[in-house]
Amino acid sequence: MKKFPLLVCLVVSVLGVGCMFYSMKPNTPLEFDKIYVVPIKNDSFAPQTQVSLTKQVRTKLSNIVGLELALSPENAAILEITIVDFGRSMATTQEDDTSRAKSFDVKMAIICTLRNSVTGRVYFRDYRISDVVECHTSNGNFQAFQYQAIPKLTNKLADKVCDIICNLW
């Protein structure tokens, strides 16, 4: 019975030492300090979403310490994004009529390629990222709610793009 407190202290100290060296952010810096975002292509039926997504991605990348947005692709990493899928599907139905939607999901998928124009290294090619935003409506005006959901959706996708770029190993 006297060994139990000793064992607990040993386990806690081992876990404490292991957690001491854990870091939420990578310690290795990126291989590039400039990034050029190619104007985003839209190969989907999403109306004008490339404008919102471009703005969100550039804003988020400009907030990364040590990374500068380049005005040209020379001497920079080049990020190419294409919107490949956009859709809306019914998530829940009205209580009194199951053929009418009460809420719906707006989904979008993009593919990204990141390469270094100086070294020629391709960090990732055609990496697929997707996300969904749920929209609720009481009056059946889906177009207005879909229009309001697009900035939320592009913001979530821009976060994912930045996470992938910042966590290159």
Task: Provide an overview of this structure.
The protein is of the alpha/beta class. The protein is built from three helices and six strands, in the order αββαββββα. Strands 1, 2, 3, 4, 5 and 6 form a six-stranded mixed beta sheet that branches. A hairpin with a 5-residue loop joins strand 5 (101-116) and strand 6. The termini are far apart. Residues 20-27 have low confidence and may be disordered.
The main pleated sheet reads as: 6 strands, mixed
Helix and strand content put the structural class at: alpha/beta
Q: Mind telling me which CATH architecture of the domain at 30-86 and 109-130 and 151-166 this is?
A: 2-Layer Sandwich
Q: Which shape, going by the Cα principal axes?
A: flat
**CATH topology group of the domain at 30-86 and 109-130 and 151-166:** Double Stranded RNA Binding Domain
How many individual helices?
3
Q: Count all strands and give the number.
A: 6
Q: Can you lay out the helices and strands and say which pair or pack?
A:
Blueprint: H1 3-20, E1 34-37, E2 41-42, H2 49-62, E3 68-69, E4 77-93, E5 101-116, E6 122-136, H3 142-166
Helix pairs in contact: 2-3
